[in-house]
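Anyone? Bumping this.
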Amino acid sequence: MVSFVAGLDWNIFFQPAFDGSGTYLRFLLIGLAWTILLSVTAWILAFVIGSIVGVLRTFPGRLLPGLGAVYVELFRNVPLLVQLFLWYFVLPEIIPGLGTWFKQALNPLLQQFVSGVLCLGFFTAARVAEQVRSGINSLGRGQRGAGLALGLNLPQVYQLILLPVAYRIIIPPLTSEFLNIIKNSAVASTIGLAELSRQAQQLGEFTAHWYESFIAVTLLYGIINVTVMIVSQFVERVTRLPGYLGGRK
Amino acid sequence: MKNYVAAIIGLCLVAPAQRAWTADELTGTLKKIKDAGFISVGHRESSIPFSYYDDKNEVVGYSQDLVMMVVGAVKNRLNMPNLQVKLIPVTSQNRIPLIQNGTIDIESGSTTNNVERQQQVSFSDTMFIIATRLLVKKDSGIKDFPDLKGKNVVVTAGTTSERLIREMNEKNNMGMNIISAKDHGESFLTLQSGRASAFMLDDALLAGERAKARRPDEWVIVGTPQSKEAYGMMMRKGDDQFKKLVDETVAKAETSGQAAKLYQKWFQSPIPPKGLNLDLPLSDDMKELFKNPNDKAFQ
């Protein structure tokens, strides 16, 4: 293994890239930047939609929880790659005016980015919604009743009582979802977005040094994910409440 | 004691002679094939008309026919008429690693022989020479590369066309938006859906993509060729014995007129799956190649 790695040609990363953007190292880092931008933007979308859908699923009554459930089942059960093709190839065809504008007036890179963000955002939102729902449901039922009895209305009960604790409880599973969105962002390479895994493929394609390329890219994904884990542990420590989940009294 | 010494001396004399005797001994890929009892052939899934699945889900094409001749030669050489042939689909991303790690013994599809790849793998005598050109809609008004100024152009990621069009864009300040699609099928979809005005690729592959369209006569191949590329079969590097056998087979097909017949079958006659004719005339480069088979790369 060691001799295999040593036998590879690592100088490849300092040679000029085929597209004139600088060295291949810089070429990979551009891909890294797109991966981060795509993941973070999609995560914000996923967090907002996921929170709304998750809260809807815990509402009293049947209609709103039902709608939330339909959303979750729809986006959770259709394969991510299929969803991406629907967003990028199919949706612009079935919306006459807007679709044509999207396809022809918008810069292709922006088209790919927008499709990627929507796809990853809506998909991950379904998973975030489930985490939010389980976070809220893990709190005692009495909390909601107590809040209402105090004269708060339902939004206030969520805002002031349920959500602040529920979010703290679900930080660990949300971290997993964020790590997933980073890895899932590689699907955007299939519609041509030059993110990290695409750049690695291109590097392999043009230099024929496939092993070097994929080893480097694995390391880069590793670095992002370790960073996310460290940040999330920090957030968990800072926000933890006395008496809850290992927080000191 | 005397007998032992004689025996040892005798052995020393015989050993080198024995090596000379077995100069014909199998090494590398041929030995691997003989030991394993099968040969693994890498093919493409949608490189029409070189290597692709037809409507019966069988691998067919110009490159496939040629590589089956090589398989025939291997069977003869190893004296194994019932040698098993494993067909393994490959992509442009995994074909080189799969050759290197021994998953496939030979790849025959639409792989360009170039200097970078020669450092990783070895190439057979050239099977085909292509030129990179443009596929556009008939009424688009695009006749040649300068007409692409400010337009969206699609290429398949990782192809020579991608490198050439990006260089051209930068050098001539053409303000093109270049879309890199995942594979040829997706590139053509990008062109058909109106996202791009032109699709740059090897002319033979463009003709193949056009044949898949709902109405092939809506599309034309235009433009001055930007580069030539030599397609070869790919093998593990440094395996002279196997390469010699493959080269001999390809060269024989080309000089004997068999390859010209295959050309007619795949490029000038109706082909599966839709019975369309690619209608690509034999180029001067190809005529020259058939006269003098060689394994030279253009880049």
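Late reply, but here is one note on the structure posted above: The CA atoms of residues 271 and 277 of chain B lie 6 Å apart.
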